[in-house]
Amino acid sequence: MSSAYTRLTERFQRLSRFSHLSAIAGWDMMTMMSPAGSRARGEALAELGVLQHQILTSRETGEDLARAKQASLSSDELANLAEMERAWQQAVVLPSELVEAKSVAGSRCEHAWRSQRPANDWQGFAENLKEVVSLSRQEAEIRAQNSGVSRYDALLDMYTCNQLDSIFADIKAWLPDLLQRVIARQDQQPIQRPQGPFATESQRQLGLSAMAMLGFDFNAGRLDVSAHPFCGGVPQDVRITTRYDGQNFLSALMGVIHETGHARYEQNLPSQWLGQPIAHARSTAIHESQSLFFEMQLGRSPAFLARILPEVINHFGGQDALNQQNFIRLAQRVQPGLIRVDADEVSYPAHIILRYEIERALIEAEIEVEDIPALWQEKMQQLLGIDTTGNYRNGCMQDIHWTDGAFGYFPTYTLGAMYAAQLFQALSRALPDVQQRIASGDLQPVFSWLQQNIWQHGSRFSTRELITRATGEDLNPRWFRQHLESRYLTDEFTTGRTTV
Amino acid sequence: MSSAYTRLTERFQRLSRFSHLSAIAGWDMMTMMSPAGSRARGEALAELGVLQHQILTSRETGEDLARAKQASLSSDELANLAEMERAWQQAVVLPSELVEAKSVAGSRCEHAWRSQRPANDWQGFAENLKEVVSLSRQEAEIRAQNSGVSRYDALLDMYTCNQLDSIFADIKAWLPDLLQRVIARQDQQPIQRPQGPFATESQRQLGLSAMAMLGFDFNAGRLDVSAHPFCGGVPQDVRITTRYDGQNFLSALMGVIHETGHARYEQNLPSQWLGQPIAHARSTAIHESQSLFFEMQLGRSPAFLARILPEVINHFGGQDALNQQNFIRLAQRVQPGLIRVDADEVSYPAHIILRYEIERALIEAEIEVEDIPALWQEKMQQLLGIDTTGNYRNGCMQDIHWTDGAFGYFPTYTLGAMYAAQLFQALSRALPDVQQRIASGDLQPVFSWLQQNIWQHGSRFSTRELITRATGEDLNPRWFRQHLESRYLTDEFTTGRTTV
């Protein structure tokens, strides 16, 4: 007779194998699938999802969790058990009818959105979104009752609204002014756009070179193309994607560097635990901290840009705009715009705060779906000085998150950016010559530090404990602000911060 | 309370969704997967396989099958029910320990074979193969007891050994002589090899052109690369593969045409039944008849070759060897060789008969694994006049089938070739100007005939009933012989059989 804990590890191992198949089929759907395969694929993935939900929420799982808590377990086993219980708890509190209804409404809303967005059809979209919001409120209500917090809090991963409010209030206090100063400063710096077209295959080869410089394990992953870039697959075979703009190679290059950050985290999760919940990446915020560490802290640093410039010239040939100073200016250009995913790192938090404030009020039922466009317009004006009147397509209809009912997700992007800055600051203390290392292409100490402090831990510690162990303190927005001020308001290029 | 039959359709629908995921993950394994993902993928697919086996062989399935037989069902439903029962019967007779043991032994044997084959290590390979043969004999024994036929018969899909003996005896009676006459004849015909290299991308574009000419639905499928060409995926999204030889573009071109035959069958299975067993392709022999119809009856016909030659020149540029007569000779060259998968259609049956005779004796325990090399040597000498002494690598170790314990599969290749010839003969009666149609690129009547007679029926009829309905008679090897004699011993190019 095996112990309750052993049975649980077997059950979660089995769930992990099913997740492997759904991750690969999901990646295929975004990269390879023929249009006619769409419906059958959706049904197949849903069937597997139902099965996984049944296994996870089965009576046996609940009983074994209760029994295993009585057993004598190692600290790793206890951490694994805690993650099992968290997954079970998340799944078991919701009635399956609600899960089903939310999934159906989300699919319907997302499917219609694909044509409503280009048609700027807010009225049509709003009808479906109301259903998604209504079901998401029900979900939040149930989770809130279960955990004794507010409804929106119940959808958040680790921080409460109050904490986020205070973090975002801090950012709101200095961001608009910082943004104005950066723009004024960059207006004085002439910039030259490189002349395209840049062949897709050359861009792909440049992306592969960047991945190699950043330690991507090509024995355990690959690079492909999809409409919306993502990092998918499984830790043993990580699939990252990008898309190529023939006139702007920096877009794909920086996208690939971003996804490589996600990928290296996945590729370096604790191999001895793979298949168990403790081996999972800690949280979406930590995942985003790794991609932004790679893109913002490394990829857009003058040291890295100077290092990769010869590769760029190697792939596209030389031209005036590809001198070092201009190349760095291109990669660090700040320009507030309508679209979140295209935003630079200075204006990005504004996009997040706007969405956070709206979705929070929506879930707390302080506003209704009809109120979104006016609020969007008001906050875009306030935070970025941009008018979005009547432009639903590139306004409140631009993201996929709400169509699926993924409320509570947006804040993790900015938390990730702040963690990334804080981690880089801690790394710089441990490795004072980090900029020289980057400039000379000696990135191994950087990766070792991340491996040591983040990757190898999987889900052993909570997000906040992980960050505290790595940096000596809980989340401190100060480092993010310092990073932005140093990069965008001082001449990082020629200051002592780098030797380039 | 739903009826037993309805419950069965739901259960098989569910199984079909799981098969969808394993088909896509299986395709991915052969085309996209990173090496490090191999073990996790194998485990994930095995886990799903175990689940499917459990669902199929569950007590409920057995009970519902018994109940549904009492119900009043339409003829299509009865055919569907019969296919359900066949699948259940196939699965339920074997003890799960045997299924498991065979799967493990097969994986071990195949895995080792991948390095033993290049090393020509027969001794090492034989050790693993013995285990596979022993378990396959056990399987055959159980199936034989269940169905009251001989052990090897029990592994065959539709024909008995006696029937195959008589069919193959017929072929053996005329094939060696035919082969000698064809070779003597072709020795008199000068042939010129086209000068490579032929760029992979150009070869791929040519393959896509051929697929388009042959009606492949690109909205429901794609072409990729793998070490061993195959047709996989699902009917809504068929995945065919090829491999490119820089010096010989005909190899990939004919391979693509072959797989397109498989693909069109899959793409045109009865859509109203997809997800149910009745919608499956009828059998491996019928599947192979479609690929060989496309490759041998259409693809290597002078009419089609003349039609596609301008495309070839369009992709590679012109050269002396790419004149019409020489191009046809290249595509119809007969040259006995060591390797089955590279064989021309005249020597191919010899490779099959040899394997049939050996595997039959092996399963019937008339010979042992140690006897294989000597028999191989003897039969290759007899049938093709080729000496294989000591060349295990390109002799009895060349195929993957036996490593997995897939005994009883080889005969379907030659049955497929004979069906293809017989179907083409019937088509020619219905469409007397078929060669003119092919020559002018008007292939729609050909596809309509196949759709009408084969594709749309899925598994509604047995293989033999399907063939009899389509051609007016049961398998008749005469048409295959007539096809070979007409193509290889008369001047098909200038006779009345084609207008080219």
Automatic annotation (TrEMBL), chains A, B:
Q: Which Gene Ontology MF annotations are present?
A: metallocarboxypeptidase activity; zinc ion binding
Keywords in alphabetical order: Carboxypeptidase, Hydrolase, Metal-binding, Metalloprotease, Protease, Zinc
Which Pfam families does the record match to this protein? Peptidase_M32
Q: Which PROSITE patterns match?
A: PEPTIDASE_M32
Provide the organism lineage as a comma list: Bacteria, Pseudomonadati, Pseudomonadota, Gammaproteobacteria, Enterobacterales
Q: How is the cofactor bound?
A: Binds 1 zinc ion per subunit.
CDD domains in alphabetical order: M32_Taq
Q: List cofactor names only.
A: Zn(2+)
InterPro entries linked to this entry: Peptidase_M32_Taq
The record's active-site residues are: E259 (proton donor/acceptor)
Known catalysed reaction(s)?
Release of a C-terminal amino acid with broad specificity, except for -Pro
Q: Is this entry keyworded Metal-binding?
A: yes
Q: Where is Zn(2+) bound in this sequence? A: H258, H262, E288
- Please give the family membership noted in the entry: Belongs to the peptidase M32 family.
Query: What role does it play?
Result: Broad specificity carboxypetidase that releases amino acids sequentially from the C-terminus, including neutral, aromatic, polar and basic residues.
Q: What organism does the UniProt record list as the source? A: Izhakiella australiensis
Q: What is its EC number?
A: 3.4.17.19
- What is this enzyme's class at the first EC digit? hydrolase
Biological processes per GO annotation: proteolysis
Name assigned to this protein: Metal-dependent carboxypeptidase
